[in-house]
Amino acid sequence: MSKATDVLTPDTAHHDDDHHDHIPKGITRWLFTTNHKDIGTLYLWFAFIMFLVGGAMAMVIRAELFQPGLQIVEPNFFNQMTTVHGLIMVFGAVMPAFTGLANWLIPMMIGAPDMALPRMNNWSFWILPGAFLILLGSLFMEGGGPAFGWTFYAPLSTTYSNDSTALFVFSVHIMGISSIMGAINVIVTIFNMRAPGMTWMKMPLFVWTWLITAFLLIAVMPVLAGAVTMVLTDKFFGTSFFDAAGGGDPVMFQHIFWFFGHPEVYIMILPAFGIISQIVPTFSRKKLFGYASMVYATASIALLSFVVWAHHMFTTGMPVYMEMFFMFATMLISVPTGVKVFNWVATMWRGSLTFEMPMMFAIAFIVLFTIGGLSGLMLAITPVDFQYHDTYFVVAHFHYVLVTGAVFSIMAAVYYWLPKWTGKMYDTALAKWHFWCSLISVNVLFFPMHFVGLAGMPRRIPDYALQFADFNKWISIGGFAFGLSQLIFLALLIKACRKEGEAVSNQVWEGAEGLEWEIPSPAPYHTFETPPEVK
Amino acid sequence: MQQEYERYYVPAQSPWPIVGAVALFLIAVGAGTVVLETTKGESGYGTHTLTAGILVLLVMLFGWFKNQIDESMSGLYSDQLGRSYRQGMSWFIFSEVMFFAAFFGALFYARFISVPWLGGASNNEMTNAVLWPTFEAMWPLINTPDGTTTQVMSAAGLPTINTIILLVSSVTLHFAHTGLEQQKRKQLTWMLGVTILLGLIFLTLQVQEYIHAYRDLGLTLQSGVYGNTFFMLTGFHGMHVTLGTIILIVLFFRVLKGHFTPENHFAFQAGSWYWHFVDVVWVMLYIFVYVL
Q1: What is the distance in angstroms between the Cα of B50 and the nearest Cα belonging to chain A?
Q2: Distance from CA of B114 to the nearest CA of A (A)
Q3: Best exposed site among A8, A84, A134, B278 by fewest CB in 10 Å?
Q4: Between chains, do B13 and A28 touch, taking CB under 8 Å as contact?
């Protein structure tokens, strides 16, 4: 038996020279790589490691909140945990995971030999570990790491922050550079590298949603860079952008931050929409219902995301006409989002459904993301937002859309495409354990947060009033269970990478359609060196 | 219908990106440490780390660009790759536009919202009465609420001269470009040289203006939100002009070596787009920071 040393099936459909399955060996393969599949793998493993690191911080948070009173950590350290947990999950886990999927899938889906700018692709990945090393390292500085919340509102991040702010700023700069380069690569690949016949309206929806996501990234990551730069000069060089004494305004920070932050929210969910739109048709054995409307809905969500930012700031004392504008603009977003949910359900309607792992996660996504969407609609209503603002209701809302939304979609994607990447079916028994444990625990974890939030429990506080004790105990138990469930996923992934399991066919799933299912499994190191013809 | 497709050039493994990653890591750690050390008046390893990072970055830029130029000169590149580069450059410039947009946003917010509100506009009469009752809203903000005073940088004089210089430099660079496209190498060399010279003059005058602001007007980075936006906007613009000038100087030496053909001159085009972009930013600056 040839051991798992990268014996790959020759790409018989497209071979025109012999050296194209030569795979470099050793550590330099990963350090110097220009291969979109290698870089995709690097991104995905990095994201998963960060997911576990950020998750460990959430465990600290939940351990402290297991019962009222201060017992395990200092309040200042608690704040560092909430801050770095948020930063890591947003910039270190969800975004790199989506970029990893984009790297693996977009060239294979559009029939391109690689990403358009392969060396820059390597660079955009390898600067990320450095950025997070700096961020995590700053936790060990004198005075501790960043403790102002992942939104780093002024004056918490200026007047009242510690020394680590300087390192935080530069680490965010690097994360931004990485995202911008990654996004440029995605856009240029999609614009310029599509195989002949792959017209715009034939592109798989994952490609469409990533194209629009990449546009959002290029538009808003530089604004984040501007915001952290102003924080740096305000804190260290005596400017007063966010200080009323010099003519500035702390609320201006929130405007600039959320001009970045709201499109950022869609950066973390649009690729998820793309993934679900790939998976649901496969396991319904039907074409996606309303393909064109999906594309237009995605574009509408992206455009609207630029005019809703102040719904994060209803309680800052804006003039009433602005509150009204942002309330209605925000509610408008539920129209294209509703189109999407409707289309997914309509795709399943009268399909011959089967419930393999990717489909289970996709269905869980549709139900649970919709719950997150509905609580978002509640938060959009200005007068009642005054009650919900900065409570656990908000925490419940964005964890439903980010964990059972974005993270579940990433897991669905891994379960869907992993056999194509390794050529072997993963351990489906473990996958089922992972799914059911995650599904139950995640709801025990986040659903009661709605209730304590409505009852007035504030977020980011290490202690709470006694009447919230029972709910918080359950939330913490759900949290630990959800954290442990991810170790099942880790075991499954390690087994899959060791290429255990049964070999799969090229198509892998009975109903799967698209270029990536026409190439051999596992996908050869180089695919589509000459473009395929798309009919 | 049979059609011939060009092969897309997918480069083999390259050591330069990882070198660049190390460089950015050192620069970030170094810059952060330098900021802490300078504001506390301590000395430490910050400057060394930063310098090391910049040196590694220079090595990376040199190696990567040499690699790139060698590949281009040996004809490995296809038209399709050229399109990728051009599209990539345009999106990079778009990201730069959004970076400046953040600071212009701060300028407009300060001017039309925060300063008037501190003066009691809209529904903020009590803000004014309670916080700084003597404060009067004005723009440019020469008396801040906490009593810092400064003077206005007038648009006449250096800023206007600088505007003319940059506008002319855009024209000369355009002529250099047409010289390249029409195979008039002499026009190309001369016009590119003049553009670089104009860039350098601009930078020198900008330094003069900063000295004038600090020494004569008392306008500093610390003089309230007017000084903040003034120096951050013109400062970042100046950094971009510096980078643009360096790019043009590199292009100049490549022109002297006989690089670039009318069909194949992405590097020149990218440098020229960058320069025109920097000019447009200046025009916006001139209008919104100096004149209005």
Answers
A1: 12
A2: 6
A3: A8
A4: yes
pLDDT at A116: 95
Cα nearest neighbour of A116 on chain B: B84
Does any CB of chain A come closer than 8 Å to the CB of residue B112? no
* pLDDT tens digits, one per residue of A112-152: 999 999 999 999 999 999 999 999 999 999 989 999 999 99
Least confident of A55-59, A322-326, B78-82: B78-82
As a whole-number percent, the residues of chain A with pLDDT over 70 amount to: 96
**Cβ(A382)–Cβ(A357) below 8 Å:** no
pLDDT (0 to 100) of residue B107: 97
DSSP B155-197: STTHHHHHHHHHHHHHHHHHHHHHHHHTT-HHHHHHHHHHHHH
How far separated are the first and last CA of chain A, in Å rounded?
A: 39
Q: A244 to chain B: which residues are within 8 Å by CB?
A: 114, 118, 131, 145
Contact between A517 and A506 (Cβ < 8 Å): yes
Closest Cα partner for B34 from B19, B11, B54, B63? Answer: B54
Residue numbers in A near B19 (CB within 8 A): none
Put simply, the answer to whether A319 touches B8 (Cβ < 8 Å) is no
Verify whether the Cβ–Cβ distance B7 to A237 is below 8 Å.
Answer: no
- Say if residue A118 is preceded by a cis peptide, omega within 30 of 0: no
Contact flag A252-B101 (C-beta cutoff 8 Å):
no
Selected for mutation to probe chain A from B6, B9, B10, B104 (highest A CB count within 10 Å) is: B10
State residue A5's pLDDT score.
36
B105 vs A contacts (CB less than 8 Å)? 223, 226, 255-256, 259
Cα(B222)–Cα(A48) distance, rounded to whole angstroms?
44
A3-29 residue pLDDT tens: 333 333 334 344 444 445 678 888 999
Q: Is the Cβ of B232 closer than 8 Å to some Cβ of chain A?
A: yes
How high is the pLDDT of residue B10?
83
Tokens standing for A376? 């978002």
B window 42-71, beta carbon within 8 A of A: 64
Please answer whether residues A166 and A157 qualify as being in contact, where contact means their C-beta atoms are separated by less than 8 angstroms.
no
Which residue has better confidence, A535 or A19? A535
Given a cut of 60, is residue A465 above it in pLDDT? yes
Residue of A nearest to B220 (CA): A239
At A21 the pLDDT is 62
Spatial separation of the C-alpha atoms in residues B74 and A514, rounded to whole Å = 37
In angstroms, what CA-CA distances link A431 with A105, A272, A411, A435? 22, 20, 10, 6
**Inter-chain contact B5–A531, Cβ cutoff 8 Å?**
yes
Domains and CATH numbers, chain B: 1-77 (1.10.287.70), 78-291 (1.20.120.80)
- Calculate what percentage of chain B has a pLDDT beyond 70: 98
* Of the partner residues B117, B122, B228, the one whose CB lies closest to the CB of residue A239: B228
Which residue, among A467, A520, A483, A455, has the nearest Cα to A54 in the 3D structure? A483
Predicted confidence band at B5 (pLDDT cuts at 50, 70, 90)?
low
Give the ipTM: 0.95
- Helix, strand and coil percent figures for chain A, each rounded to 5: 70, 0, 30
Residue of chain B whose Cα is closest to the Cα of A227: B102
By annotation, the residues of A acting in catalysis are 85, 114, 150, 178-179, 262, 264, 266, 277, 311-312, 337, 340, 459
* CA-based nearest residue in chain B for residue A16: B7
CA distance to A321, B149, B235, B237, B279, per residue, from B209 (Å) = 42, 19, 11, 14, 18
**What would the pLDDT profile of A329-378 be if each residue is shown by its tens digit?**
999 999 999 999 999 999 999 999 999 999 999 999 999 999 999 999 99
